[in-house]
Amino acid sequence: MSQRLVVIGRLWNLTFCDSWSLHFQYAKLKLPIMKQSHNAYYANFYEMLSRAVQLEEGKELLVTCGRTGLNKAFPINLLLLLVFFLAFSVAFIIVTVSTIKYYGINSVVTSVTSSFVPCSEKPNVLDRWIKPPLALMHNMSDEELLWLASFMPQRKDYPFNRVPKIAFMFLTLGPLPFAPLWERLLKVHEKHYSVYIHSQVSSLGEFPASSVFYSRQIPKWGRMSICDAERRLLANALLDTSNEWFILLSESCIPLYNFTTIYGYISKSKHSFMVPMADRGRYNGHMSPEVSIEQWRKGSQWFEVNRELAVSIVKDTLYYPKFKEFCTPACYVDEHYFPTMLTIEKPAALANRSLTWVDWSRGGAHPATFGEPDINEDFFARIMKRDNCTYNGESTSMCSLFARKFSPSALEPLIQIAPKILSF
Q: Structure pTM?
């Protein structure tokens, strides 16, 4: 009898647990629970009791409420993992959609693909040495600039396709009145020239982005003498490894030929163009022994030098301190330093003449200045067909590529006459 009561109690427990499990599942699904009739409910109960009689005869009760709960319960760790995964997926989708809406699909794809670098690809370290600076403005002092510009490859062959360029260096007291004429000269020759401006005024006016003078003014640091400015121009131009020839010009200079003629003349020359004339005036004996009176020279400041001579100028620490200390008014450093130093260091490299024509026939301390009334065909015929000079060991009548001094009033007639007389 006692065993029957135990079995009945277990069956009651089973029925009670199964019933509550069913109610729980229905509650979760938010479905209505169907009510059973009393007769159906008791019929089921009596069926359970009949099964209990059979269990009493030795059969094991295989299912209990506790085991049923264990078999039917969902593992809590797996449930937490599933919830975490769903939350992460929702967050990722929200972030992705927001990014695409803000930046656009093209920019997102571009940023992802551009950041991929194959393992075998390495950055080209050579680019930092051979590419010209993107901007001319920098915060280097004169000493730092001259030191950096003095580096020069010791091998003549280059491990890249180098196109030699002419560096046009404008040393100005103010604006560039002949900028439109230079624009016309340099048009469509971008790969063969560079432009640098050193001006005593802080602003040269606004050049459009398409102009050859746009953002080409170099920073001004340290001392402001003319010779310092010329060395500073050379040093900034030397930072571009493709610059091979360096021409110093003023705001009153104009070109006499088209760019193709100028480039061919300079690039084929075996010499640089400077006028080192022997002169004993203004010499100071304290410059000896570095500079003797026999080595003292005077010449025009408007020169053209190749890269080798330009490096010699910016790296000099022997002669320049002497000129700085002892070449004082009425000794002008810009008229004596370059011809004297290069005559001592590289005498065979100089052609002993200038490429810039000036007229000293009127006398005085300054050359003649030409304006609008002077611009005609006869005027340029006298300049371009003057006395012969030597070019690469041979006589030629083509001696000057540039001319000065011209006033701003000469611009309009020069623009009009340029296609016929100057060939550009």
A: 0.70
Tokens of 137: 């403005």
Contacts of 174 (CB under 8 A, 6+ apart): 199, 200, 201, 204, 251
**Tens-place pLDDT, residues 33-78:** 334 444 454 455 445 445 444 444 444 433 333 444 444 455 777 7
Confidence of residue 120 (pLDDT cuts 50, 70, 90): low
Cα 162 from Cα 347, distance rounded (Å):
28
Please, which pLDDT band fits residue 221 given cuts at 50, 70 and 90? low
> What does each C-alpha distance from 88 to 76, 81, 93 come to in angstroms?
19, 11, 9
Contacts of 297 (CB under 8 A, 6+ apart): 276, 277, 278, 279, 336, 339, 340, 343
Q: Where are the domains of the chain?
A: 2-73, 77-113, 146-422
Residue 186's contacts (CB-CB under 8 Å, 6 or more residues apart) are: 168, 193, 195, 212, 259
Residues facing 370 on adjacent strands: 406
Query: Quick one: fold of 146-422?
Result: Spore Coat Polysaccharide Biosynthesis Protein SpsA; Chain A (3.90.550)
Residues 215, 135 contacting (CB under 8 angstroms): yes
